[in-house]
Amino acid sequence: MTTKPQAQMIAPDAYPQMMTGKDVAQAMATLKSAQTKAKAQGAMKAAAPPMRAAILQYVDQLEEAGQDLVRIFDLMHEIRGFAETAGLATTGRIADILCRYMDDMLRLGKAMDAHLVALHVAAITRAARAEKDDEAMGQIVVTELAALVTRRLMEAQNTPKP
Amino acid sequence: MKHFSSTAISARSAESSKRMSGSGFESLKALVVDDNAHMRSLLRALLNSIGIKEVQEAAHGGAALDMLRSKKIDLVLTDMQMQPMDGLEFTRQVRLSDTSPNPFVPIIMISGHTERHRIEVARDAGVTEFLAKPITAAHLFSRIAEIVERPRAFVRTEGYFGPDRRRRQDDNFAGPWRRANDFADTEVR
Protein backbone atom coordinates (compact mmCIF):
# COMPACT_ATOMS: atom_id res chain seq x y z
CA MET A 1 0.00 0.00 0.00
CA THR A 2 1.35 3.42 -0.87
CA THR A 3 0.76 6.47 1.27
CA LYS A 4 -0.27 9.76 -0.29
CA PRO A 5 2.31 12.54 -0.09
CA GLN A 6 1.51 14.99 2.68
CA ALA A 7 0.27 18.49 2.03
CA GLN A 8 2.62 21.19 3.16
CA MET A 9 1.24 24.53 4.24
CA ILE A 10 3.37 27.67 4.21
CA ALA A 11 2.03 30.42 6.45
CA PRO A 12 1.98 34.04 5.16
CA ASP A 13 4.79 35.06 7.51
CA ALA A 14 6.98 32.27 6.14
CA TYR A 15 7.23 33.65 2.60
CA PRO A 16 7.96 37.16 1.22
CA GLN A 17 4.90 39.43 1.31
CA MET A 18 4.02 42.15 -1.18
CA MET A 19 4.15 44.62 1.71
CA THR A 20 4.41 44.56 5.47
CA GLY A 21 4.15 46.77 8.56
CA LYS A 22 3.13 50.40 8.22
CA ASP A 23 2.82 50.10 4.44
CA VAL A 24 -0.22 47.84 4.90
CA ALA A 25 -2.19 50.44 6.84
CA GLN A 26 -1.10 53.16 4.43
CA ALA A 27 -2.04 51.05 1.41
CA MET A 28 -5.47 50.27 2.83
CA ALA A 29 -6.08 53.97 3.47
CA THR A 30 -5.03 54.73 -0.11
CA LEU A 31 -7.40 52.13 -1.55
CA LYS A 32 -10.31 53.66 0.37
CA SER A 33 -9.48 57.33 -0.15
CA ALA A 34 -11.67 59.77 -2.08
CA GLN A 35 -8.58 61.00 -3.92
CA THR A 36 -7.85 57.50 -5.23
CA LYS A 37 -11.47 57.07 -6.23
CA ALA A 38 -11.41 60.32 -8.20
CA LYS A 39 -8.17 59.36 -9.97
CA ALA A 40 -9.54 55.92 -10.80
CA GLN A 41 -12.77 57.36 -12.14
CA GLY A 42 -10.70 59.64 -14.35
CA ALA A 43 -8.77 56.64 -15.64
CA MET A 44 -11.97 54.73 -16.40
CA LYS A 45 -13.44 57.73 -18.20
CA ALA A 46 -10.31 58.24 -20.28
CA ALA A 47 -10.36 54.56 -21.27
CA ALA A 48 -13.90 54.70 -22.72
CA PRO A 49 -13.20 56.21 -26.20
CA PRO A 50 -10.36 53.81 -27.13
CA MET A 51 -12.38 50.90 -25.72
CA ARG A 52 -15.33 51.93 -27.87
CA ALA A 53 -13.07 51.96 -30.92
CA ALA A 54 -11.87 48.46 -29.98
CA ILE A 55 -15.47 47.25 -29.65
CA LEU A 56 -16.27 48.55 -33.12
CA GLN A 57 -13.31 46.57 -34.48
CA TYR A 58 -14.61 43.47 -32.73
CA VAL A 59 -18.04 44.11 -34.28
CA ASP A 60 -16.46 44.27 -37.75
CA GLN A 61 -14.75 40.96 -37.02
CA LEU A 62 -18.08 39.52 -35.83
CA GLU A 63 -19.64 40.29 -39.18
CA GLU A 64 -16.67 38.74 -40.96
CA ALA A 65 -16.94 35.62 -38.78
CA GLY A 66 -20.15 34.55 -40.57
CA GLN A 67 -21.19 31.25 -38.98
CA ASP A 68 -17.83 30.44 -37.40
CA LEU A 69 -19.16 29.79 -33.89
CA VAL A 70 -15.72 29.38 -32.32
CA ARG A 71 -14.70 32.81 -33.55
CA ILE A 72 -18.04 34.31 -32.48
CA PHE A 73 -17.63 32.71 -29.04
CA ASP A 74 -14.20 34.32 -28.55
CA LEU A 75 -15.26 37.73 -29.87
CA MET A 76 -18.43 37.73 -27.79
CA HIS A 77 -16.47 37.20 -24.59
CA GLU A 78 -14.13 40.04 -25.54
CA ILE A 79 -17.09 42.34 -26.21
CA ARG A 80 -18.75 41.37 -22.94
CA GLY A 81 -15.51 42.22 -21.14
CA PHE A 82 -15.07 45.67 -22.66
CA ALA A 83 -18.50 47.04 -23.56
CA GLU A 84 -19.48 48.48 -20.21
CA THR A 85 -16.11 50.20 -19.78
CA ALA A 86 -16.65 51.65 -23.26
CA GLY A 87 -19.99 53.08 -22.15
CA LEU A 88 -21.93 50.56 -24.26
CA ALA A 89 -24.12 49.01 -21.59
CA THR A 90 -26.72 47.55 -23.96
CA THR A 91 -24.03 45.96 -26.13
CA GLY A 92 -22.50 44.43 -23.01
CA ARG A 93 -25.83 43.01 -21.83
CA ILE A 94 -26.62 41.43 -25.21
CA ALA A 95 -23.11 39.94 -25.34
CA ASP A 96 -23.62 38.60 -21.82
CA ILE A 97 -26.84 36.82 -22.86
CA LEU A 98 -25.18 35.19 -25.87
CA CYS A 99 -22.10 34.21 -23.83
CA ARG A 100 -24.33 32.49 -21.28
CA TYR A 101 -26.24 30.70 -24.07
CA MET A 102 -23.06 29.52 -25.81
CA ASP A 103 -21.40 28.45 -22.54
CA ASP A 104 -24.49 26.51 -21.43
CA MET A 105 -24.95 24.79 -24.79
CA LEU A 106 -21.29 23.76 -24.76
CA ARG A 107 -21.70 22.45 -21.22
CA LEU A 108 -24.82 20.52 -22.26
CA GLY A 109 -23.08 19.20 -25.38
CA LYS A 110 -25.88 20.49 -27.59
CA ALA A 111 -25.73 22.12 -31.03
CA MET A 112 -26.23 25.87 -30.99
CA ASP A 113 -29.10 27.51 -32.81
CA ALA A 114 -27.36 29.43 -35.60
CA HIS A 115 -30.38 31.66 -36.07
CA LEU A 116 -30.40 32.67 -32.41
CA VAL A 117 -26.68 33.45 -32.56
CA ALA A 118 -27.19 35.54 -35.71
CA LEU A 119 -30.00 37.45 -34.01
CA HIS A 120 -27.67 38.44 -31.16
CA VAL A 121 -24.87 39.35 -33.54
CA ALA A 122 -27.24 41.63 -35.44
CA ALA A 123 -28.48 43.24 -32.21
CA ILE A 124 -24.93 43.81 -30.98
CA THR A 125 -23.88 45.30 -34.30
CA ARG A 126 -26.75 47.80 -34.14
CA ALA A 127 -26.29 48.66 -30.47
CA ALA A 128 -22.53 49.16 -30.72
CA ARG A 129 -22.73 51.33 -33.82
CA ALA A 130 -25.51 53.54 -32.50
CA GLU A 131 -24.24 57.02 -31.69
CA LYS A 132 -25.73 56.89 -28.23
CA ASP A 133 -26.51 53.96 -25.97
CA ASP A 134 -30.33 53.96 -26.13
CA GLU A 135 -31.18 52.62 -22.67
CA ALA A 136 -34.94 52.33 -23.18
CA MET A 137 -34.82 50.54 -26.52
CA GLY A 138 -31.82 48.55 -25.35
CA GLN A 139 -33.73 47.26 -22.34
CA ILE A 140 -36.55 45.99 -24.56
CA VAL A 141 -34.12 44.17 -26.86
CA VAL A 142 -32.20 42.71 -23.89
CA THR A 143 -35.41 41.48 -22.22
CA GLU A 144 -36.69 39.85 -25.42
CA LEU A 145 -33.38 38.16 -26.20
CA ALA A 146 -32.95 36.96 -22.63
CA ALA A 147 -36.44 35.39 -22.69
CA LEU A 148 -35.71 33.71 -26.01
CA VAL A 149 -32.42 32.30 -24.75
CA THR A 150 -34.02 31.03 -21.54
CA ARG A 151 -36.66 29.23 -23.62
CA ARG A 152 -34.04 27.68 -25.93
CA LEU A 153 -31.90 26.55 -22.98
CA MET A 154 -34.90 24.91 -21.31
CA GLU A 155 -35.66 23.08 -24.56
CA ALA A 156 -32.04 21.99 -24.82
CA GLN A 157 -32.02 20.71 -21.24
CA ASN A 158 -35.19 18.73 -21.82
CA THR A 159 -34.11 17.01 -25.03
CA PRO A 160 -31.73 14.04 -24.98
CA LYS A 161 -28.31 14.33 -26.57
CA PRO A 162 -28.30 13.24 -30.23
CA MET B 1 26.04 63.90 21.78
CA LYS B 2 25.20 63.53 18.19
CA HIS B 3 24.79 66.69 16.09
CA PHE B 4 22.89 66.88 12.84
CA SER B 5 23.50 69.57 10.27
CA SER B 6 20.44 71.57 9.22
CA THR B 7 20.75 70.05 5.73
CA ALA B 8 20.71 66.55 7.14
CA ILE B 9 17.72 67.35 9.34
CA SER B 10 15.70 68.87 6.53
CA ALA B 11 16.57 65.93 4.26
CA ARG B 12 15.44 63.53 6.95
CA SER B 13 12.29 65.55 7.52
CA ALA B 14 11.52 65.59 3.78
CA GLU B 15 12.02 61.83 3.65
CA SER B 16 9.75 61.38 6.62
CA SER B 17 6.99 63.58 5.26
CA LYS B 18 7.33 61.85 1.91
CA ARG B 19 6.81 58.53 3.68
CA MET B 20 3.85 59.96 5.58
CA SER B 21 2.24 61.25 2.42
CA GLY B 22 3.05 58.05 0.48
CA SER B 23 0.41 55.62 -0.69
CA GLY B 24 2.06 52.48 0.63
CA PHE B 25 2.29 51.24 -2.97
CA GLU B 26 4.96 53.50 -4.44
CA SER B 27 7.85 51.08 -4.07
CA LEU B 28 5.96 48.22 -5.74
CA LYS B 29 6.48 46.98 -9.26
CA ALA B 30 3.55 45.50 -11.14
CA LEU B 31 3.23 43.46 -14.32
CA VAL B 32 0.12 43.66 -16.52
CA VAL B 33 -0.38 40.79 -18.99
CA ASP B 34 -3.14 41.19 -21.58
CA ASP B 35 -3.28 40.84 -25.35
CA ASN B 36 -5.44 43.95 -25.60
CA ALA B 37 -3.40 47.15 -25.48
CA HIS B 38 -6.41 49.21 -24.31
CA MET B 39 -6.93 46.91 -21.35
CA ARG B 40 -3.24 47.08 -20.45
CA SER B 41 -3.42 50.84 -20.64
CA LEU B 42 -6.49 51.00 -18.38
CA LEU B 43 -4.97 48.66 -15.81
CA ARG B 44 -1.74 50.66 -15.83
CA ALA B 45 -3.73 53.86 -15.19
CA LEU B 46 -5.65 52.24 -12.33
CA LEU B 47 -2.43 50.97 -10.75
CA ASN B 48 -0.92 54.44 -11.17
CA SER B 49 -3.94 55.89 -9.36
CA ILE B 50 -3.03 53.99 -6.18
CA GLY B 51 0.61 55.02 -6.43
CA ILE B 52 2.24 52.11 -8.28
CA LYS B 53 4.47 53.96 -10.69
CA GLU B 54 6.47 51.12 -12.19
CA VAL B 55 4.18 48.99 -14.34
CA GLN B 56 5.58 46.54 -16.88
CA GLU B 57 3.44 45.21 -19.71
CA ALA B 58 3.35 41.95 -21.65
CA ALA B 59 0.96 40.77 -24.37
CA HIS B 60 1.05 37.05 -23.50
CA GLY B 61 2.26 34.59 -20.90
CA GLY B 62 5.59 33.80 -22.52
CA ALA B 63 6.65 37.44 -22.64
CA ALA B 64 5.42 37.87 -19.07
CA LEU B 65 7.60 34.99 -17.86
CA ASP B 66 10.64 36.57 -19.52
CA MET B 67 9.82 39.84 -17.76
CA LEU B 68 9.42 38.14 -14.40
CA ARG B 69 12.84 36.57 -14.84
CA SER B 70 14.50 39.86 -15.66
CA LYS B 71 12.79 42.17 -13.13
CA LYS B 72 11.59 41.97 -9.57
CA ILE B 73 7.79 42.05 -9.73
CA ASP B 74 5.53 42.39 -6.67
CA LEU B 75 2.08 42.04 -8.24
CA VAL B 76 0.78 40.47 -11.46
CA LEU B 77 -2.51 41.19 -13.23
CA THR B 78 -3.15 38.74 -16.06
CA ASP B 79 -5.81 38.04 -18.65
CA MET B 80 -6.89 34.41 -19.13
CA GLN B 81 -7.23 34.05 -22.92
CA MET B 82 -4.03 34.91 -24.79
CA GLN B 83 -1.87 33.42 -27.51
CA PRO B 84 0.59 31.72 -27.64
CA MET B 85 0.68 31.22 -23.86
CA ASP B 86 -2.53 31.91 -21.94
CA GLY B 87 -2.88 33.19 -18.40
CA LEU B 88 -3.55 29.75 -16.94
CA GLU B 89 -0.34 28.22 -18.28
CA PHE B 90 1.54 31.36 -17.28
CA THR B 91 0.24 31.01 -13.71
CA ARG B 92 1.17 27.32 -13.57
CA GLN B 93 4.68 28.18 -14.81
CA VAL B 94 5.07 30.88 -12.16
CA ARG B 95 3.90 28.57 -9.38
CA LEU B 96 5.47 25.26 -10.40
CA SER B 97 8.42 25.81 -12.70
CA ASP B 98 11.87 25.11 -11.24
CA THR B 99 13.08 28.27 -12.96
CA SER B 100 10.32 30.52 -11.60
CA PRO B 101 11.89 33.58 -9.99
CA ASN B 102 9.01 34.14 -7.55
CA PRO B 103 6.47 31.31 -7.07
CA PHE B 104 4.74 33.33 -4.32
CA VAL B 105 3.99 36.47 -6.35
CA PRO B 106 0.31 37.52 -6.04
CA ILE B 107 -1.55 36.93 -9.32
CA ILE B 108 -4.91 38.51 -10.08
CA MET B 109 -6.57 36.88 -13.09
CA ILE B 110 -8.93 39.13 -15.05
CA SER B 111 -11.27 37.53 -17.55
CA GLY B 112 -14.53 37.86 -19.44
CA HIS B 113 -14.87 34.07 -19.12
CA THR B 114 -16.67 33.99 -15.81
CA GLU B 115 -18.37 30.60 -15.83
CA ARG B 116 -17.90 28.63 -12.63
CA HIS B 117 -15.81 25.87 -14.19
CA ARG B 118 -13.40 28.42 -15.66
CA ILE B 119 -12.97 30.16 -12.32
CA GLU B 120 -12.23 26.77 -10.77
CA VAL B 121 -9.60 26.08 -13.42
CA ALA B 122 -8.00 29.45 -12.64
CA ARG B 123 -8.07 28.70 -8.92
CA ASP B 124 -6.48 25.30 -9.52
CA ALA B 125 -3.75 26.90 -11.64
CA GLY B 126 -2.79 28.94 -8.56
CA VAL B 127 -4.23 32.42 -9.04
CA THR B 128 -4.53 34.51 -5.90
CA GLU B 129 -7.65 36.43 -6.92
CA PHE B 130 -10.10 36.35 -9.84
CA LEU B 131 -11.68 39.48 -11.30
CA ALA B 132 -14.49 39.37 -13.85
CA LYS B 133 -14.59 41.71 -16.84
CA PRO B 134 -16.02 44.26 -17.26
CA ILE B 135 -13.77 45.56 -14.55
CA THR B 136 -14.46 48.45 -12.22
CA ALA B 137 -11.88 50.29 -10.16
CA ALA B 138 -13.71 49.32 -6.96
CA HIS B 139 -13.57 45.62 -7.80
CA LEU B 140 -9.88 45.75 -8.73
CA PHE B 141 -9.04 47.62 -5.55
CA SER B 142 -11.01 45.15 -3.44
CA ARG B 143 -8.89 42.29 -4.85
CA ILE B 144 -5.70 44.22 -4.14
CA ALA B 145 -6.97 44.95 -0.62
CA GLU B 146 -7.50 41.22 -0.05
CA ILE B 147 -3.88 40.55 -1.00
CA VAL B 148 -2.58 43.38 1.18
CA GLU B 149 -4.73 42.82 4.22
CA ARG B 150 -5.34 39.08 4.23
CA PRO B 151 -2.42 37.31 2.59
CA ARG B 152 -3.16 33.62 2.25
CA ALA B 153 -1.08 30.65 3.22
CA PHE B 154 0.46 28.67 0.38
CA VAL B 155 -0.16 24.98 -0.05
CA ARG B 156 2.08 22.41 -1.70
CA THR B 157 0.57 19.07 -2.64
CA GLU B 158 1.54 16.52 -5.25
CA GLY B 159 -0.21 18.35 -8.08
CA TYR B 160 -0.65 21.88 -6.77
CA PHE B 161 1.36 24.78 -5.48
CA GLY B 162 -0.38 28.07 -4.80
CA PRO B 163 -2.55 30.02 -2.39
CA ASP B 164 -4.72 28.00 -0.04
CA ARG B 165 -7.88 27.36 -2.05
CA ARG B 166 -10.08 27.33 1.04
CA ARG B 167 -11.10 30.95 1.45
CA ARG B 168 -12.16 30.99 5.06
CA GLN B 169 -10.19 29.45 7.88
CA ASP B 170 -12.25 28.31 10.80
CA ASP B 171 -10.08 28.22 13.90
CA ASN B 172 -12.64 26.06 15.67
CA PHE B 173 -12.82 23.49 12.87
CA ALA B 174 -11.60 20.15 14.14
CA GLY B 175 -12.25 18.08 11.03
CA PRO B 176 -13.18 15.94 9.28
CA TRP B 177 -10.25 16.54 6.91
CA ARG B 178 -10.45 15.74 3.26
CA ARG B 179 -7.32 13.61 3.56
CA ALA B 180 -6.30 11.71 6.63
CA ASN B 181 -2.75 13.08 6.50
CA ASP B 182 -3.75 16.70 5.77
CA PHE B 183 -1.23 19.10 7.26
CA ALA B 184 0.66 16.38 9.10
CA ASP B 185 3.82 18.16 7.97
CA THR B 186 2.42 21.60 8.54
CA GLU B 187 4.24 24.87 8.89
CA VAL B 188 1.17 26.78 9.96
CA ARG B 189 1.89 29.37 12.62
Helix content of chain B: 25-40%
- Could you list the spans of chain B in which at least 5 consecutive residues all have pLDDT below 50? 1-20, 175-189
Strand composition percent of chain B:
15-25%
Q: Give the CA-based shape of chain B.
A: globular
Oligomer: heterodimer
CATH class of chain B: Alpha Beta
- Topology, number of strands of chain A: 1
Q: Helix/strand-derived class of chain A?
A: mainly alpha
Helical fraction of chain A equals: over 70%
Radius of gyration of chain A: 22 Å
Describe the main β-sheet of chain A briefly: none
Structural class of chain B: alpha/beta
Distance between the termini of chain A: 43 Å
Second rung of CATH, namely the architecture of chain B: 3-Layer(aba) Sandwich
The value of Rg of chain B in angstroms is: 20 Å
Side by side, the strands of the main sheet of chain B go 2-1-3-4-5
The CATH architecture category of the domain at 47-158 in chain A equals: Up-down Bundle
What is the number of helical segments of chain A per DSSP (H or I, 4+ residues)? Answer: 6
Overall description:
The complex is a heterodimer of chains A (162) and B (189). Helix content of chain A is 72%, strand content 2%. With 162 residues, chain A is an all-alpha fold. Chain A has a domain at 47-158: Four Helix Bundle (Hemerythrin (Met), subunit A), CATH 1.20.120. Chain B has six helices and seven strands. In chain B, β1 (29-33), α2 and β2 (54-58) form a beta-alpha-beta unit. Chain B is globular, with a radius of gyration of 20 Å. Residues 1-20 and 175-189 of chain B have low confidence and may be disordered. Chains A and B meet through β1, α1, α2, α3 and α4 of A and α2, α6 and β6 of B. β1 (8-10) of chain A pairs antiparallel with β6 (154-156) of chain B.
